[in-house]
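**User:** Once you have settled down, spend some time on the protein underneath, comparing sequence with structure tokens, and judge whether sequence predicts the tokens.
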Amino acid sequence: MLRYFLSLSVLLISFQLQAQIPLDPQRGQNRNFGEMDFGNLDTPEDSAVTKKDENGNLILEPVPEQIYSTRTSGFIHEQDWLLNRKIEHYFDTTLHNLHRYNFVDKNNFAYQDLGNLGTAIKPIFYDLESDIGRRFGINSIGPYLHTPDKIQYLDTKSPFTSWYYVQGAQGRAIIDVHHSQNIKPNWNAGLRIYRMTSRLLVGTEPANRNDRQVTHENYIFKTRYESLNARYRLLFHAQSLKHEMAETGGLLIEDQYKTLFDNPPSDLNPDQVPDIESLDEIFGFTGAQLSNSLSDAESTQRNDQMRLYHDYSLIGRQGVQLFHIFDYQRRKYKYFDDSFAADSLYYQSVSKSEVPNLPTYTHTQRFNQLSNTVGIKGKVEKVFYIAYLRQQNYRYHFAIAPDIIIPRPLSSQRFVGFKGTYDLTDKIQFRIDYEGLLSEGTGTKVYGEMSTPIFTLEHRRWAAEPTLLQQYHYGAVYQWDNTELRDPNDEFAGRRLNSTSNTETKISLPLLNKKVILRPFAKLATFDDYIYFDTLARPAQYNQTITVAQAGLEFETHFNWFHQRLLGFYTLNDTEEIMRMPSLFANYQVYYQGNPFGFPIFIQTGLDLHWHDAFLADAFMPITQQFHLQNFHNLGNYLRGDIFLNFQMKKVVMFFKLANALQGVQREGSFSTPFYMTQPRSFEFGVTWLLYD
């Protein structure tokens, strides 16, 4: 397979790119070209034609070009077969938001990372978990993972290959190679290779400009099979992921100046003048003129997974079906600091406790999970139902040295679940999902939805035990055991954490026509016994109810070549001292779209703006990979603007972007997380090829 990919890379240069008709970009969102969430292209009408000569012999005609396209390379997700959806998804090569390749950008700027591609990332608003039962608790790279709901199982009529490449400044790069082909008409297999890298922004000398901050590699094999009578179906994938990151601890700043950042220089008191003339000057320094808090620390995360879904129809196609899901995951997190003694002041400044005098430090956490789900599903008139049982077995241990391994015995857990849909009419549908823990402990999730042409109403509730990391940690910097009550007079002793729960109700009212689109929405969320990490980066629990209300609007206009989109909302939070988020949030995009001067090229070019007001954003503790509260560094109130050009020319889809183009208009720079600088103004581009033979 590797030889096949190398051969394709050589042949790619000589491919004759064929014309495709671009569709209206509102048909796709291109949230992430690297995830291949594309959409539709028109299918060519040409078909192979056979002719006979006067003697009745076949005349072989040249095979017409473009027999194969996106319409012959459909894919499904596991949930489609589980819910018996009779649909195939198709790749979307529309241009909208193609330039938003960065994971913060393509999530509508509602995330914060450490200022660089592939670094630890989290939502700036509240996060609703979806899993119950025992959970690892280290999710700092969650958006970068190819979870089972994102795996695409293709059915291609010809060998299909996609190439996606992004090159940004400071060594930021993404390459995503995806190949799939049918072994038989009812059996497809594919391989995907995904790689992401970025270079350190701070602390690099000119001779070491290639110092890596992030190296992310993911290899996925997948297959899809359906018996000839369509009664047996199978989906399987295996993947191996490795994510290595140099941990910097953020920009090294003297303590007396830490409270001054992201404040205008006019706010400085006479006795608070820093060594540099203006705080904005740091954004004009080169990487070699600045230093990081950690000099030689790194983290590694591994995630290996095998997953099998298969079902069998006992009565008819959808009358009664049996299904089974096997899932095995092996996760590993390792933290290593080769200069622990020199970095001890950094750890002490956050934890407010003494750390041992060790030249180096390392710890490793391993979490294995084996899951088996068996169930029955079917359809009776307008009702579709699923009922299942699942058992999960776990293995977990914490190692602070090769010869010091601290296992944590974990009992197996059993769950029962139900999913159901009812179609009152073609346009009015109801859905209910439930899953609960049968064994001891807390674990419940419920989801309900009512969909009508006028509005969509959703409600979800979730309750679970604390994560393994929140319950237990043993290391040189932090030690806690929150599974049992300790001495209440000991400030740093652990205490038993209760289960936590949250609910969310959301209503949206789409008002649509061909030119103007309005989507007002409102959310109300509550959190009980909320678990968070405090200013010392230790787990804590708030024993009262937190209420968060949101109201907003999505607004679009599309007139000929002129287009604009607005997303804005207001958030009201009654417990800002515990759960922190901006109150005002807005994205605005304006662009031209069309075929200028009749050239054989379809373009989309414009300005992408984002702003939210200032708030005390969470800081980051690398040793536990957790974001935690801090009380001195306001982030926000900074207008970010990107200038972009997305275009399609035959089979080539490409973007060019000037990122952070408005740097210097309001301020000389900003931070994405306290003491982690956002990337400076830079030029970036990306390109995609879709090949069908």
